[in-house]
Specification:
Chain A is of the alpha/beta class. Chain A has 13 helices and 14 strands. Chain A is about 35% helix and about 20% strand. By secondary structure, chain B is of the alpha/beta class. Chain B contains six helices and six strands; from the N terminus they run E-H-E-E-E-H-E-E-H-H-H-H. In chain B, strand 2 and strand 3 form a beta hairpin. In chain B, helix 3 crosses helix 4 and helix 5 packs antiparallel against helix 6. The chains are: A alpha/beta, B alpha/beta.
């Protein structure tokens, strides 16, 4: 049987990827340039017994997404720009309460209303630190329509596996451009579901450390009763201010991610084997970078690309290793230097770092990257 | 053909994004090539300069936007002024002769006819001006076959409007051929 193919937008593919992953609940508030996700989910979820709800605003939408997940449904919300700012409070709630869910945030110009229809890559730090307090973050950055579909499946898998919110951060170009896509057949991609409790309801504790760093999560309505709060909590889910418990809980929540970076961090190395120059790129900008690398290679320039697919946790180990091999990193990004800062931190002064930064609503084109290569010392 | 870059430009609401999508679909679904379609538009729903870009290639398309435009459609003077700067030497400029009167200087193949008027008065509905333009663009560039272009148009259109769009596509195709002679 031939595969089902379609020609569609990144946003539409994101919705279909979520459905493949088993998403049964979407709560959102429409906002350009993310609205197509809500459109597709509103049409498709009712057909499979799922629920779509448009909330009164993004704060409510994030709260509903958390509620949907606690009721046992894989849950998704989609937003952009100022909508992301509003979701931050409840994203913190999902972090501390350890509720798996996926936040699909199409990066547009900002701050505030900014440029609603212009592309941007400036929500990297807001995904990482937008909600207050110490917490781990997982964020993925797709570069094509097919990859957006596949990464949504991965985002749900990571959310379920590590019991936490996961961000998917396409830029507006990836979200709105159209490409051919192959729908995955059942069984073709791995689909992970959260671990359900193995103990009877009377013995269940939602944050029981005896089950490891990712305790099983029961679904409300399945006979398990437990307490969920935004306060620091003990193993039974009820608030605590006991210093040793709070410290241990906070550390566990970060450890569950940082002890598994090799499982979480995904990347692509392109023509880096003999490279003197490494372009570090992600999202649509990596497509300009690939074009530029191919052009430069034809002229004999030893340049390659490190393409970030998991932005958070940042691929520290890989960039550190490259810093010992290449002369320079070129970091093109549609913001004023967020990724550069991370590359600089990892490179520890071992390589030159050249940023290309655009926030004018226009993409970074291959010529700009080619020009920058001339500045390498 | 390693990489062919097209841009459809005009005002918001003229159906340029749809025209781009149909062309890219014709290339990637019906012709088995690689294609990417993207667009840029302002926050307003109607009016304002709007563009839709299509890159068609034999190999996967990396940079999804136009670098050097092989073929440009301009349906308004504003769009022509704004989006003709990176038209390749020897490239194709297709324009509406009623709406674009000042053509950019340069060594292009300039082909014009009254695209919107054709849709309105000869096909019967102004709304299909984008399909007239699409037919014309395919005739001039040959990036996809006439048949595959028509297939892509008809697979996007509601049943009640099949004949209208078929006529618009054919008329655009023929008029462009006549105008380029």
């Amino acid at each position: 049987m031939s595969k089902k193919v379609a020609f569609m937008q990144g946003n539409e593919a994101a919705a279909h990827g979520a459905l493949y992953a088993g998403c049964k609940f979407f709560a959102g508030y429409p906002i350009t340039p993310s609205t197509e996700v809500a459109e597709v989910m509103s049409a498709e979820l009712p057909k499979i017994g799922g629920k779509f709800i448009q909330m009164e605003d993004e704060i409510g939408a994030m709260a509903a997404t958390i509620g949907g997940s606690l009721a046992g449904c894989k849950s998704l919300t989609a937003t952009s720009g100022p909508g992301m700012s509003l979701k931050q409070e409840n994203i913190g709630y999902a972090c501390i309460a350890e509720v798996p869910c996926v936040i699909y945030n199409v990066m547009r110009g900002g701050p505030s209303t900014g440029m609603p229809t212009g592309p941007s890559q400036s929500d990297l730090m807001s995904a990482r630190w937008g909600t207050h307090g110490d917490h781990a973050t997982i964020a993925l950055t797709p570069a094509s329509v097919q990859e957006t579909y596949d990464m949504m499946v991965r985002a749900f898998n990571l959310a379920e596996k590590y019991r936490m919110p996961v961000h998917v951060l396409p830029d507006e170009i990836v979200a709105h451009m159209r490409e051919r896509i192959e729908f995955r057949e059942q069984g073709e991609l791995e689909v992970i579901d959260r671990t359900a409790p193995s103990v009877p309801p009377a013995e269940y504790k939602p944050y029981d450390p005896q089950f490891g760093d990712v305790p099983p999560l029961a679904a409300f309505g399945s006979g398990y009763k437990f307490h969920v709060t935004g306060l620091n909590k003990a193993a039974d889910g009820f608030p605590t201010t006991k210093a040793n418990l709070v410290q241990a809980e906070e550390e566990r929540q970060i450890r569950k991610v940082m002890a598994n970076v090799d499982d979480i961090v995904d990347f692509e190395e392109y023509k880096l084997d003999d490279a003197d120059i490494c372009v570090v790129a992600f999202g649509s900008t990596s497509r300009s970078a690939r074009y530029a690398v191919n052009e430069a290679r034809e002229k004999g320039v030893k340049v390659g690309m490190f393409r970030i697919k998991t932005f958070w946790p940042f691929p520290d180990k890989q960039i550190k290793a490259l810093a010992g091999k290449v002369k320079a990193f070129i970091v093109p990004e549609m913001n004023l230097g967020m990724c550069s800062l991370e590359v600089e931190r990892c490179a520890q002064g071992k390589a030159q770092i050249l940023g290309i930064n655009r926030v004018d609503g226009e993409p970074i084109n291959p010529d700009q990257i080619l020009e920058k290569m001339k500045e390498v010392k | 053909m390693s990489r062919y870059e097209l841009r459809f430009s005009g005002a918001g609401g003229q159906g340029l994004i749809t025209a781009g999508i149909i062309l890219a679909e014709a290339a990637s679904i019906h012709e088995g090539k690689q294609a990417v379609q993207s667009q840029s538009y302002g926050p307003e729903a109607r009016g304002g300069a709007s563009k839709s870009e299509v890159i068609i290639a034999d190999a996967p398309v990396d940079y999804p936007k136009v670098t050097k435009c092989d073929a440009l459609l301009a349906l308004t003077q504003e769009a022509c002024d704004k989006y003709s700067h990176d038209l390749k030497e020897g490239g194709i400029l297709l324009y509406d002769t009623d709406l674009v009167t000042k053509l950019p200087a340069g060594n292009y193949k300039k082909v014009g006819f009254n695209i919107i008027n054709t849709a309105k008065n000869e096909v019967g509905r102004e709304i299909v001006a984008n399909i007239v333009a699409l037919g014309a663009m395919i005739a001039l560039t040959g990036v996809v076959s006439r048949e595959n272009g028509e297939k892509a148009v008809l697979s996007r259109v509601p049943a009640a409007f099949l004949e209208l769009n078929k006529k618009a596509y054919a008329m655009g195709f023929e008029k462009a051929l006549a105008a380029s002679k």
